[in-house]
Structure formats: C-alpha cells, structure tokens
Amino acid sequence: MNQKKWIRIVSIYSIIYTAITLLSSVLYLCNGIYEDPSGNWHELDRAMILLIGIAAFELCTNLPVKPLILRYVTAYIPSLLLAFAYVWSTGLREPLAKTAYRDIWINFTSLFVILCIINTVTDVCKKKRTQKGKGEKE
Predict the structure, then answer these.
(1) How remote is the C-alpha of 87 from its chain's centroid?
(2) What is the structure's pLDDT at 106?
(3) Coil, strand, or helix at residue 98?
(4) Chain centroid to CA 65
(5) Exposure of 56 by Cβ count < 10 A (0-12 exposed, 13-18 middle, 19+ buried)?
(6) Residue 32, phi-psi category: left (phi > 0), alpha (psi -120 to 50), beta (remainder)
(7) Cβ burial, residue 54 (10 Å; 0-12/13-18/19+)
(8) What is the predicted pLDDT for the residue at 25?
(9) pLDDT the model gives residue 1
(10) Which one of 28, 46, 59, 62 is CB 3.0 to 4.6 Å from 33, fit for a cystine?
C-alpha cells in the first residue's frame, strides 16, 4: 500500500474514533454521569474494536469478489467473529456486562453498514463520473 492509502486509513480511523468518543461522552453527560464508569480500558477496547472494523472494511474494499454485497459479507462475518473473540477476551480481565455481545453486535454492525453504504455511494459516483467523462470524449 502506498502512503496516500495509509494516510486515508489513519484519517478515517481517527475521525470515527473521535466522533464515537465524543458521542459517548455527551450521552454520559446527558444521563448525569460525569466520569466514564468503565475507565481507560473502555477507551482501549473501543480503539481495538474500531481497528478490527476499519481493517476488515479496508480489506473488503480490495477483495476481488463480485458482486459487491458478497464482498461485504465476506469481510463482515470473520471480522464480527474477531470482534466477538476480543469481547470474550476482555471478560478474562473483568466481568462482561450482560449485554456485551448484543452491544458489540449492534455497534459493530451499524458502523460496518454505514461504511459500506458510503463506499457503495462513492463507487457509484466514481463510475458515473468515469462514464460521463468517456461519453464526452467520444
């Protein structure tokens, strides 16, 4: 991978991590909670789960699998299983919440679907621009 690709990946990761952390903090404050009850481990866990998701998404955008939906599913299933394994491993250091697996499924799937939609729309726009550019040259 070239430097431009790495900068894009790190930028996407940083923007999403910041947005999720800010949203979480605002929700805690709105509920009258002034400190993260899970502490620093929660921040590190969020970073690892996001890393799993971003890595899976970047891999799926480069898979030579057609159709596009199959490419997404091919990346989603193993990455979700990896996220579940990570959640399980955090249970070795502290007890998991009763809803830990449901929460990670909802959060991971939501973010993955949003990224897939953005990627699909971007691809469609690029193809339209390319076709429009070819049509004007002829």
Answers:
(1) 16
(2) 92
(3) coil
(4) 20
(5) buried
(6) left
(7) buried
(8) 87
(9) 67
(10) 28
Cβ–Cβ under 8 Å, residues 77 and 109: no
- Give the mean pLDDT of the chain: 87
How far does CA 72 lie from the centroid of its chain?
12
State the Cα–Cα distance between residues 23 and 5, nearest whole angstrom: 27
Judge whether 59 and 78 are in contact, CB under 8 Å. Answer: no
Model confidence pLDDT, tens digit, residues 93-132:
888 889 999 999 998 999 889 888 988 898 889 888 888 7
Backbone phi and psi for residue 93, each to the nearest 5 degrees, phi listed first: -95, -30
Paired tokens of 115? 């990224």
The total number of residues shown for the chain amounts to 138
Amino acid (1-letter code) at residue 59: L
Given phi > 0 = left and psi -120 to 50 = alpha, else beta, which region is 2?
beta
Q: Residue 83 is encoded by which pair of tokens?
A: 């996220």
Cα(45)–Cα(98) distance, integer angstroms: 17
Position of tokens 């996407």? 12
State the pTM of this model.
0.77
